[in-house]
Design goal:
heterodimer; A: mainly beta; five-stranded mixed β-sheet; about 10% helix; B: alpha/beta; TIM Barrel; three-stranded parallel β-sheet; about 15% strand; globular
Chain lengths: ~70, ~260
């Protein structure tokens, strides 16, 4: 098992995977889920690429969704 | 469709856009949306709750209208561009209500950052709808960059102050060929009506509805005000005079 330190939605944490898809699955987000988007180091990762993206130590991952707003 | 509102290459029957923030609860928000007749409703893009509680906002609102994501809360062009790209990925829309805020106290736009973000997003194929100052020069520049509309504020966001400088809005309407959507500062129905009477194409209302004592009634009032204001603009108001102009005939008076 590989552990890496990343910044996920602004919080530093250690995760047990280098697979973006696995990280998302661990957070309850799978590629069939609508209305969610992911960026790694300020680059949007289309969901078709989630399965192939590998994370590295220090990566900044953002997982966002639409919410109520003006 | 009689007198459609053309925006971003599409046609809408309603000239009222509604924001979805700050309602007492979700049912009131949905009832207000129905009462408003709005076909376009704004949403924000935010980090998900990592504990697994995912929002259902997009699903419930998206079933009733077109979702217009915003970049609210962004203070730099860079953050706004990334938020727009995330919104496009999350919602499958290239429409973006572009906000680049200058400071927390006024929530006024940071114009240089706004212009930079607008240019970049237009080049990237977005339909850019920028929240901006009621400044004809800024609006001119945004239109020249290729924005699909300009969205000048009536007054600071959430202030409910109404149209503080209606003459600027009239100048913007006269000088800018893209749709003018008055965004922010609307306080009550007459404010929305005046915006349309001035010839503005539409208004975006959030707090005035969401924070009203009875939001659904206010949404209905806004719908009627927007329709009345638009009709009055099309009908053409009479000139304003500084003296009286008799309306009854002067001939045939008794006692002459």
């Amino acid at each position: 098992m590989t552990s890496i330190a990343i910044i996920l939605n602004g919080a530093e944490m250690t995760v047990e995977t280098t697979s973006l898809a696995q990280l998302l699955a661990d957070r309850g987000v799978d590629e069939r889920q609508r209305f969610v988007a992911v960026a790694v180091n300020n680059l949007v990762m289309p969901r078709s690429e989630w399965a192939s993206v590998r994370l590295a130590a220090g990566d900044r991952v953002e997982i966002v969704q639409p919410m109520k707003g003006g | 469709m009689d007198d459609p509102f053309n925006l971003g290459g599409e046609r809408f029957a309603s000239r009222l856009l509604m924001g979805s923030a700050g309602f007492p609860n979700q049912q009131v928000m949905l009832d207000a949306l129905d009462a408003s007749g709005a076909e376009i409703v704004t949403v924000a893009i935010r980090r998900i709750n990592l504990s697994g509680q995912h929002e259902e906002t997009a699903a419930v609102l998206g079933a009733r209208g077109r979702l217009l994501p915003n970049t609210a809360g962004c203070y730099t062009a860079r953050d706004a561009v990334l938020t727009a790209q995330l919104a496009r990925e999350a919602l499958g829309t290239n429409w973006i209500k572009l906000e680049v805020i200058g400071d927390r106290h006024t929530l006024y736009p940071d114009v240089p950052e706004l212009l930079a973000a607008a240019g970049e997003l237009v080049q990237a194929g977005f339909v850019v709808l920028p929240y901006c100052n009621d400044d004809p020069i800024t609006c001119r520049k945004l239109a020249d960059l290729g924005c699909a509309a300009v969205m000048p504020l009536a007054a600071p966001i959430g202030s409910g102050m109404g149209l503080i400088n209606r003459y600027n809005l009239a100048i913007i309407r006269d000088r800018i060929e893209v749709p003018v959507v008055v965004d922010a500062g609307i306080g009550t129905a007459s404010d929305a009506a005046i915006a349309l009477e001035l010839g503005c194409d539409a208004v975006l209302v959030n707090s005035a509805i969401a924070k009203a004592r009875r939001p659904v009634l206010m949404a209905d009032a806004m719908r009627r005000a927007v329709e009345a204001g638009r009709l009055a603009w099309r009908a053409g108001r009479i000139p304003q005079l500084h003296h009286a102009e008799a309306s009854s005939p002067e001939a045939g008076l008794i006692g002459t």
